[in-house]
Amino acid sequence: MNARDRVPELTAVLSIASLALVFGAVLGAVPRAVIPHAPAGVVAAIPHVNAVVSTVAIGTIASGVAFARRGEFGRHRAAMVLSAVLFALFLVLYLYKVVLEGPATFPGPDAVYRQVYLPILAIHILLAVVCIPLLYYVLLLATTRPVGALRDTAHARVGRVAASLWLVSFFLGDVVYALLYLLY
What global pTM score does this model have? Predict the structure, then answer.
């Protein structure tokens, strides 16, 4: 059997591995000593770089959706692959910073923390977690089949859901950034 015949299984394995890595980093299971340390200025720039990456990803995802709706599947594929690369870049940078420094603490007032920041952060995290298997699934379908064969799969249906959730997650990530680094 090849990858084409094992998309659900590969989706599950990749999702579990990815989420284990993310939660392991966030919960402190990855030892700081095994990570090379960049200069403090580089680490401090990561949230700002990631905000730009998120904003660009919103544009590439929206473009990819528009290309698919117009039947421009070559451009759709390029936009979505770029979106996946941007997501991977965001995640690598985020996890690097989290392993070195831990999650960012909210510097604003407690009322804003409880009533605004935490709900937005919770929805952002939930959507990001839900997106992982959806994204793996549509990417695996797309990379194991010719474009014409995707009509016989759930690629378009799952892709619409994945893209919608992905857009909201990236947007909320930018809101979290603004709350952490611009407003407070």
Answer: 0.92
Q: Residue 142: which domain range?
A: 3-183
What value does the mean pLDDT take over residues 107-125?
A: 97
Q: Which residues have C-beta within 8 Å of that of residue 162, sequence separation ≥ 6?
A: 131, 134, 135, 137, 138
Which residue, chain included where needed, has tokens 């720039």? 45
Residue type, 132: I
Cβ burial, residue 182 (10 Å; 0-12/13-18/19+): exposed
By C-alpha distance, which of 184, 131, 183, 181 is closest to 161? Answer: 131
In whole numbers, what is the pLDDT of the chain averaged over residues? 96
Tokens 């990815």 locate to 18
- Report how many domains make up the chain: 1
Nearest to 81 by CA among 9, 29, 140: 140
